[in-house]
Specification:
The structure holds two protein chains of two kinds. Chain A is an alpha/beta fold. Helices cover about 45% and strands about 15% of the residues of chain A. Classes of the chains: A alpha/beta, B alpha/beta.
């Protein structure tokens, strides 16, 4: 069974590049009305123009999700553009300075910045958007996370801690919103061929990395699945060539 | 009564005066109870319906200059088109001065240009009521205009407040589309703690969106015309919830004036409701007889305020005078950051009597 994403109002943060852009494109192709949030106006305008040129509906909100005063401006502009939001994808995130540093060499301010972008920003935006969802009795929040949230990778301390906290917040959101019709999912997209990944691991073999559009298609399928994943679930998407070799091509693993 | 000058420590913990028009007037006080907002669920019953205005509040105050360099403030009060808003213009100064003490703007003809940081607007029309009530056509439209408004605008606020209001402070917890030019503030004390407690009790919620305009401008000609016609949007699910609630003898409780205006404005002669978008110029005064709504959760208002006369449509003058007197003596705080009042028949009745009241309301009038 499936429920269509067509006609739904979807907001994606970090929407100008990488997975966010691919998601915006895939959602708009599926008929969703998409609001993309990103800091860089020019890149964002390019993405929105590309979606519109392909016949999709997209709107740009230029903002930094980590900025305290940006939350209601983002939510307000999004709702002015498309109406109440049905799906929020908290995708924007920062690695902090690269090359990644050992925790002993990490500046406290860099940990704070990782928490501001990857944890507190999504919390504020979720707070602003989930209220009206609860009132209307439906909605989905997706937190984009990483295996760095569950594995102790050296040099990924600030990022990994912020994502672990984001996941825990997602589980508590899900517990508190049980019975309201609003679900919260933690989605780990796996290692993707994005600029962010190249910044973190410049010498990675790109052939082994997942393609963002394929991951985006999996996330759209997750949103359209009926019944979809249970609220609070952590979903690991593995679509890369390595996953294929392991025989798990195009599987969404629910843990 | 004094206005609240600052945000309460906790959104959902302010004073609440419960006013029960169905309770006996003697002994004095039987129809009034003072409590605090977290106790709100005690006064509603399973089967009741609470309807809120889910409009988010626009940062509707824009400060800038005209072409001659004169200071100007525009307070938006209604959206007219993708690039066009109605607005009231003020001269020099800001919210720290009382609106009635603000100098008017320089005389500006139709076609005059105003600049608010990067945003440019042209006066497209002036209302017959006052040259300060204008339509502004902006140089941007749609997404671009909204981005500029959120960059340049501040929430509209009045001189009784102690400090600048940030945008978050004028949003309800369920705010969605930015349609309101002042906060639909009766819903400000509602937290999810309270809303979820109501639901656990069997009280349903529904929403509508109503474009609340400005409550005062300080220009007597404009103030006499307020509230202007305001647009609303009532979802089909809300219309269904109202008719189901009424069919089962539950009470329909409006959160704030804006919900009363939208629902009663959309009500037809027979009490039926139409879903969808509309505009209402309905004025609720003491003579008004509501067709749809049984009770109102409202901010605390003093007897001389226009909002108070709205409450009079739901409770008689004697009871309301007693309520105003109580609120005055108890030091209730008014306006958007203040205390609350609930006017609801049966709110103070013991459960058994409440059941009888409901049975009575369900009986045909000649039974």
């Amino acid at each position: 069974m499936s429920r269509s994403i067509a006609g739904q109002n979807v907001m994606v943060t970090g929407g100008s590049r990488g997975l966010g852009r691919a998601l915006g494109e895939a959602l708009a192709r599926a008929g969703a009305r998409v609001v993309l949030v990103a800091r860089h106006a020019d890149e964002l305008a390019d993405t929105v123009a590309a979606i519109r040129a392909a016949g999709g509906e997209a709107h740009a909100v230029v903002a930094d999700v980590a900025a305290r005063d940006a939350t209601h401006a983002i939510a307000g502009q999004a709702a002015a553009a498309v109406g109440p939001i049905d799906v929020l994808v908290n995708n924007a995130s920062t690695l902090g300075p690269v090359p990644l540093r050992l925790l002993l060499d990490t500046d406290c301010e860099d940990l704070e910045r990782a928490l501001a972008v990857n944890l507190v920003g999504p919390f504020r935006l979720t707070k602003a958007v989930a209220g009206p969802m609860v009132l209307r009795g439906r909605g989905t929040i997706i937190n984009v996370t990483s295996d760095a949230a569950t594995e102790a990778y050296e040099r990924w301390g600030a990022y990994g801690a912020s994502k672990a906290a984001l996941e825990q917040l997602g589980r508590v959101w899900a517990a508190e919103l049980a019975g309201t019709g609003v679900r919260v999912l933690n989605v780990d997209p796996g290692e993707m061929d994005t600029r962010m990944h190249a910044d973190a691991i410049p010498d990675a073999n790109r052939a082994e990395l997942a393609d963002p559009p394929r991951v985006a298609a999996e996330i759209v399928a997750l949103l359209e699945a009926d019944p979809g994943p249970t609220s609070g679930a952590r979903i690991a998407i593995r679509t890369g060539p390595t996953a294929a070799a392991a025989g798990s091509e195009e599987t969404a693993v629910v843990t | 009564m004094k206005p609240a000058t600052t945000y309460p420590q906790q959104r959902d913990d302010v004073r609440l005066l419960v006013i029960d028009p169905a309770a006996p007037l003697v002994p004095p006080g039987a129809a009034l109870r003072e409590t605090r907002t977290p106790a709100l669920p005690d006064f509603l019953a399973a089967g009741d319906l609470l309807i809120v205005n889910d409009a988010a509040t626009v940062p509707a105050s824009l400060r800038g200059r005209d072409d001659d360099g004169n200071q100007i403030e525009a307070r938006l009060l209604a959206a007219r088109a993708d690039d066009r808003f109605s607005a009231v213009l003020f001269g020099a100064g800001d919210w720290h001065q009382r609106t009635e003490d603000r100098p008017p703007p320089a005389a500006l003809p139709v076609g005059a240009r105003l600049r608010f940081r990067a945003l440019v607007a042209q006066i497209a029309a002036r209302a017959p009521a006052s040259p300060r009530l204008v339509d502004l056509r902006f140089s941007a439209a749609g997404d671009e205009l909204w981005a500029a408004l959120y960059r340049a605008g501040r929430p509209v606020q009045y001189s009784y407040l102690a400090h600048d209001l940030p945008l978050w402070a004028v949003q309800t917890v369920y705010a969605a589309r930015p349609w309101a030019f002042e906060m639909p503030s009766a819903g400000r004390p509602l937290s999810w703690e309270i809303l979820l407690a109501l639901r656990r009790k069997g009280v349903r919620w529904a929403s509508l969106t109503h474009a609340a305009g400005l409550s005062a401008t300080g220009d007597p000609a404009i103030d006499a015309a307020l509230p202007l016609a305001e647009r609303y949007d009532i979802p089909a699910a809300t219309v269904r919830a109202v008719s189901e609630t009424r069919a089962r003898g539950g009470r329909v409780v409006a959160v704030g004036t804006t919900v009363v205006r939208a629902l009663e404005g959309a009500a037809m002669e027979d009490g039926g409701l139409r879903a969808g978008a509309g505009e209402t110029d309905l004025i609720i005064d003491p003579a008004f007889r509501p067709r749809v709504i049984d009770g109102v959760l409202s901010g605390a208002h003093a007897a001389h305020e226009s909002h108070f006369s709205l409450l009079a449509a739901f409770a008689g003058p004697t009871l309301l005078a007693a309520a105003a007197d109580h609120a005055e003596r108890a030091g209730f705080l008014t306006h958007e950051l203040g205390d609350s009042m609930l006017v609801l028949p049966g709110a103070l009745a013991p459960a058994a009597i409440r059941g009888a009241l409901r049975a009575a309301s369900q009986s045909p009038p000649d039974a």
